Structure formats: C-alpha cells, structure tokens
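Dear support,

I submitted the protein below through the web form. The confirmation email said the job was done, but the results page showed an empty box. After a refresh the structure appeared. I'm attaching both so you can tell me whether what I see now is the final result or a partial one.
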Amino acid sequence: MFSDSVIDSVTIQAYLETHYRVHGEVPFVLQIGQVSPDLLSLYARHNVNCAAFLTGCNPFSRAVSEPENRERQTSLGAELTRRSLTFVEGIGQHPSNNWPGEESFLVLGLDLEAAKTLGERFEQNAIVWCGADGVPQLIVLR
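What the results page shows now:
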C-alpha cells in the first residue's frame, strides 16, 4: 500500500498503530481505519465534514529538542489561527514504543489538499486525514 514511499515500513507501521488523542470538551482517540463516532459528533457540532490531525514536531520523524518542538508547534498553531481555522489540541502517541508523544492539533474542516500542504510545510512524513465517513486515514507525504 505504501511501497512507493521513501519512509521505511517500520515507521509507517508505527504511524498506523499510533493513537491520535484529541483533547477538548469530550476527549477521544482516533485510530487509523476505524470509524470514530466521536469525530462524527464533532463534525456535526461544527458543521464540517472533514478534519486533519497535524503536528509540527520532529520534522521527518527526526527527534529534535523539546524547545524546538515547542517552537514548531507554536508556529503551526499560529498558522492555523491566522487562517481562522477551528482546531483542538491533541497528542499522537504509540501505545507501546518509546517514541515520545507529539503535541498535535485536530483541524476541523481542513480539506485533504490543504492538510497535505501544511504537513509538507512543517516537514512531516505523513498526516492523518479524516473524510466525511469519520475514518482516519494515514496520508504519506514522501
């Protein structure tokens, strides 16, 4: 499925297994390939039909310092705010590996092309995008 990617299969597998936790009024977890009734409820409350789970942390899955990750995430938040997008804080965390959780945002109403562009701008290997069906998909960018 991801055979044309430059990203190694172990990293892609980790992305597929990660729990994408959405904070906010009603916290919930997104998992790749599994419909999220909580996400669909959030869509209805905000009158949207798609969302993207994005981070600015650890460019191209290279661990960087906590201050650099904080700066990158702040920059992503500022860009979302500048674009007047609605977003909820979250964290992507693999349930069993040692990779630290990455602060993230669930951005409501962000179409796939705009989400891919932001992911590329913030040097990410992949993003999570959810369409109208409420099923998170791993979108590999490289």
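Response: this is the final, complete result; the empty box was a page-load delay. Residues 56 and 71 are 9 Å apart (CA to CA).
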